[in-house]
Design a protein that fits this description.
With 459 residues, the chain is α/β, with parallel strands linked by helices. The chain is built from 14 helices and 17 strands. The protein binds flavin-adenine dinucleotide and NADP nicotinamide-adenine-dinucleotide phosphate.
Length: 459
């Protein structure tokens, strides 16, 4: 099927970021013609992790539209109003929405938008010189039917995919699988004699908690191994959270790329790590289980990389290394759940555009300050959640979705439809801003470099 119309934008992928763009464009009463293509048959947000009791890591105000336009009909509060739950939410008195409800809210928005198409997996995108537009080819994953769309601009919103290290791959999916598939495989897990969860990000923590709660009824040994230095919390203090702001993003963008490559991977605890609430619930459950001298059939062991997995009979042997003590050991388990994180890859469907795209030395996208791909064709490519290397840790944060989409909408419409927020935090990240705000501060000329950290060094 060829859609003869040349759309203003074709969106590839429909997660919260592209859905936010669709919702903000719909509310902009601007004449922008869009279509969003999603490979799944229906909308679901990280379906394999929609666990009972889990919540968003951001307040409900970070919905698809509110931080840009609180009057937009696609807001979370309007969802509550329209679905008859606004008083229930009022008495709930909790900022963090249950993840299952956030998913229901997103599905409600999808149902109200005419621009969303499902069962459309994008397979190639190229620039058509003759009609001066992108040609986007998609196929129906089940039937193979082919669809062709044309558009002046693209919005790439394909998110990230489960990251399973190569050496841990190749085992039956029911026995060794990523947390992203947890809900699909949980019945199998509950029948095992022993289960091991790997990793100590929020995904692994939520799976461990779910398995701990079900352990007594199902009677299995439960172990939790992580390569991280400990079962540490992610940052959730108010001043720390200001790193997820337009100002911090701009500060990071302006730094030399070599500096960014050095510090961004070391900012793990700003966005990795365990929610302090989840950590407390796990601890409290272990405490209650140990009353009266009982010992829960559980093991927690950090600083341990799982280096290999080998089948042994009906179970698996995990080759592990405690990296600090430099000791190796083997750990056997019937089932292994890998909470080893997510990765972003350059999608194969961009191959026809490879020569037009500007790549950095490490083969990553060159990106403009407002999250567009640096590409040598007249059309724009709006990048969702694919510029951590240029803009830092705020990029995947749902709280910045409205800010990024505001920039895209304003550029598409050619006027300021939504305000582009500035001065959103109480601290300064760049020296230029600090000097602007602090009367006593002024730049000095070149000086001898001094150490950036004070160290207790007795030598
Ligand atoms: C379990 C989990 C919970 C999270 N919770 C939070 C949170 O509370 N707060 C927060 O700030 N961040 C959270 N994050 C981080 C992040 O914000 C989310 O992952 C968010 O879903 C990213 O949105 P996205 O739109 O970039 O991509 P995704 O939500 O991953 O959606 C991308 C979509 O693109 C589709 N797609 C991919 N390739 C194609 C193709 N070729 N053709 C068509 N469609 C395609 C996929 O099927 C998918 O539906 C969480 C992440 C995870 C994994
Ligand atoms: N409720 C929520 O809102 C929610 C729920 C789930 C996820 N999320 C978000 O989604 C993002 C991804 O979270 P995530 O938990 O999936 O992943 P993650 O935060 O990237 O954590 C991955 C973990 O796996 C460990 N690991 C990787 N390879 C290993 C190996 N071979 N052996 C042992 N351990 C290994 C990592 O250790 P190292 O530290 O050494 O790398 C790390 O502890 C985060 O931003 C998170 O906040 C949010």
């Amino acid at each position: 099927m060829t859609d003869q119309q040349v759309h203003d934008v074709v969106g590839v992928g429909l997660g919260p970021f592209n859905l936010g763009l669709a919702a903000l464009l719909d509310g902009a009463s601007a004449d922008v013609d869009v279509v969003f293509l999603e490979r799944e048959p229906e909308f679901n947000w990280h379906e394999g992790m929609l666990l009972e009791g889990t919540t968003l890591e951001v307040p409900f105000l970070a919905d698809l539209v509110t931080l840009a336009d609180p009057t937009n009909p696609h807001s979370y509060l309007n969802y509550l109003r329209e679905t008859g739950r606004i008083y229930e939410f009022y008495f709930y008195e909790t900022f963090q929405t249950p993840r299952r409800e956030y998913n229901d809210y997103l599905r409600w928005v999808v149902d109200s938008l005419a621009s969303c198409r499902f069962d459309r997996e994008v397979t190639t995108v190229e620039w058509d010189e003759k009609c001066e537009c992108f040609e986007v080819v998609a196929c129906h994953p089940a039937t193979g039917e082919r669809f062709v769309y044309r558009s002046r601009h693209l919005a790439l919103g394909i998110g990230s995919g489960p990251q399973i290290p190569d050496h841990l791959q190749g085992h039956p999916e029911t026995d060794v699988f990523h947390t992203a598939r947890y809900r699909h495989n949980r019945e199998r897990v509950l029948q095992a004699d022993s289960v091991t969860v790997v990793g100590s990000g929020q995904s692994a923590a939520e799976v461990f908690q779910d398995l701990l709660e079900r352990q007594v009824a199902n009677d299995y040994r439960l172990d939790w191994l992580t390569r991280s230095a400990g079962f540490f919390p992610m940052e959730y203090s108010k001043l720390g959270l200001q790193h997820f702001s337009p100002e911090y993003e701009q500060y990071v963008y302006d730094l030399p790329q070599a500096t960014k490559d050095e510090f961004i991977p070391n900012q793990d605890l700003l966005y990795k790590g365990i929610d302090p609430g989840t950590s407390a619930e796990i601890y409290d459950l272990l405490y209650r289980r140990s009353i009266g001298g009982d010992r829960p059939d559980v093991g927690l062991f950090a600083m341990t990389a799982v280096c290999d997995i080998e089948p042994v009979g009906d179970a698996y042997a995990l080759d592990c290394r405690q990296w600090q003590a430099d000791e190796t050991f083997v750990h056997e388990s019937d089932v292994v759940v890998l909470g080893t994180g997510y990765e972003r890859q350059v999608p194969d469907f961009l191959a026809p555009l490879a020569d037009a795209i500007a790549w950095d030395e490490q083969g990553r996208y060159e990106v403009t300050p407002d999250h567009r791909l640096d590409i040598d064709v007249p059309g724009e490519v709006f990048l969702q959640n694919a510029s951590v290397h240029t803009h830092g840790v705020g990029v995947p944060d749902l709280g910045l979705g409205c800010y990024h989409n505001t920039k895209f909408v304003n550029r598409l419409v050619g006027e300021q439809v939504y305000p582009e927020d500035t001065n959103t935090v109480f601290q300064d990240f760049s020296l230029e801003q600090f000097c602007e705000h602090a009367p006593g501060a002024s730049r000095t000329g070149g000086r001898e470099p001094i150490p950036t950290h004070t160290q207790n060094d007795d030598s």
